[in-house]
Amino acid sequence: MTTANVEVLSSDAGAIEIAVTGEVDLSNCEVVQDDIFAAITNHLLTVRLNLAGVTYLDSAGLRILFALAERLRLLQTECQVMAPFGSASRRVIELSGLSNLVELRP
Amino acid sequence: MRRSRWATHRALLETVADVMLLLMPRSVDSGGHAESRLRRIEAVTDSALAHLDLEQLLPELLKRVRELLDADTATVLLLDSGGEHLVAAAASGIEEEVRQGVRIPIGEGFAGHIAASRKPLVIQQVDPTTVVNPLLWEKGIRSLAGVPLLAGGEMLGVLHVGTLDSTPFTEDDVEVLQVAGDRLALATRTGLTRGERAAASALQRTLLPALLPAIPGLQLSARYAPGEASGVSGDWYDVFTLPSGWLCVAVGDVVGRGLAAATVMSRVRTATRSYALDSDSPTEVLTRLDRHMRHFEPQTMVTMAYAMWEPSLSRIHLSLAGHLAPVLARPGERAELIEVPVDPPIGIGTAPVQRRSVTVGIPQGATVLFYTDGLVERRDRSLDDGLALLCETVATGPTEPLCSRVMSRLVGTSPTDDDIAVLAMRRQEAEELREISFELDAIPEVLADVRATLRRWLPSAGATPEEAGDMLVVVGEACSNVIEHAYGPLGGTLSLRLEAREGEVLATVGDTGHWRSPRGTHRGKGTELMHQLSDDLRFEHGPGGTLVHIRKNVTGGDPA
């Protein structure tokens, strides 16, 4: 069984920071996506997704990030993804071309 | 031949005797002819009855009793496991009693009164004031006689007969009934003991893992032997993985014997697994289990060794609750008991304590042997001698012959009082792991297991952390593809083969389904990733399924 945790680290009128920790694969990607999407309202200007604590991410997790980027573009909300160099998700995200759609931060 | 002819003759004679008895009416019988009385008693103590199982004996004996006493009903009620009710076990005449599961509280009504007083009882008035079971008065029973079923001073139930006419049962009748009752009581007790033993051993069989989990990197073997004196009791062993990749081991002993100990064991085992799922350390699991047992099983004591293997398999974290320390054999060293402080057992008799654990390094090729006290405790040998013999016997090497050797040297041919559980775990050497393959159900839940295996194996195959991370994603993608696309709703299997070579690792992911291209939004990223993160990727589609061959160069040194 794969487990991940989605937690809102900080939230004010304009911005929210959501941290994902654990592993994301086919078995839990829907739950993780629902948790992330549920934390975001249409009033926000910036959404920051912190993936520093993710220990495994594959295309199932990338699907979440692409879907999020697409939704936020529609809402005209800025999307930032934080994946430190050397972290499990960084390489997969770099290779995926997601950085064309979101602001990828270390 | 001779024997079977004799048996036929005997059966015939018995039938004749039965028919003769049948022909004798109750009124004549109650006249008190010594001879007929003897015959009547012989009919229920007939040695042929001894060969019947309890299930066959009950109806046969009830039939005979009914005929002998010219009664319209005969019923056996047995004490249920709670000890406060009688439950209809067999009936002749009013069979509905059994079908409707008639229950009589001890001390109430006719049968309940016999059970409470342990004395025979005859009544002439059958109505709601004297009898609990409405079936009896509804059917028009007017006269009842009953006796307690006693065996070895233990009250097992009640046997009673009833008639539609109001002629009272005589003292002679009650005497015959009591002889039948004694016969039934003995047979019932033997049957119950036998049934209990069978149930305990069936329970043990279902609870001990028939197949130990296949953990690439670990070799496992186990033995369980019931005690000859007491049969199965409460020993068990259990091995299971956690979602985090940690591997848990429990070996324990519920103090007590027979079915009672075996059922408690089944609950302890389940509780241990539950707490293991939410705990990071052996002491936490044992502390929670202790609290659980004190509350839900207050009369129970359990000794237990609980260990958690790190996903790398290079160390175990071990805690003991009143249990003997496992034996560790490192390559090239003498086997010895692991030095670990022993904390009190789980459950009654002690105050809750701060539990302790030790962390022990397990080098490649080393063996850890867990066991219960039955293995080393003998009447004719001191515990220290038993432990010394065990340490002398345990050595590195394949676990299956090790278990056989341990059982042979420590148990040998002498009968054992207590049951014995032994579990041997050997960390395999990198050389043995150059090539591993396994098969899994193609369901999303196995992806975490696949990663746990890869995380253990890749470093030993020479992959640097970065290379291992890449390989984790490539193999994960290939497995996800099988799970998502290869099969219909019936599902199928996923096979994985890993091979370490000079400067490279190979992985082959296979299915036996039909290829279809990925569907849905934001899909197709997976294949792209697989190409980017591997050095060679080849899909082999065939009529029997698809194989994905993955090759990745590794620079982390020679696999060794």
UniProtKB/TrEMBL annotation, chain A:
<protein>
    <submittedName>
        <fullName>Anti-anti-sigma factor</fullName>
    </submittedName>
</protein>
<feature type="domain" description="STAS">
    <location>
        <begin position="14"/>
        <end position="106"/>
    </location>
</feature>
<dbReference type="InterPro" id="IPR036513">
    <property type="entry name" value="STAS_dom_sf"/>
</dbReference>
<dbReference type="Pfam" id="PF01740">
    <property type="entry name" value="STAS"/>
</dbReference>
<dbReference type="InterPro" id="IPR002645">
    <property type="entry name" value="STAS_dom"/>
</dbReference>
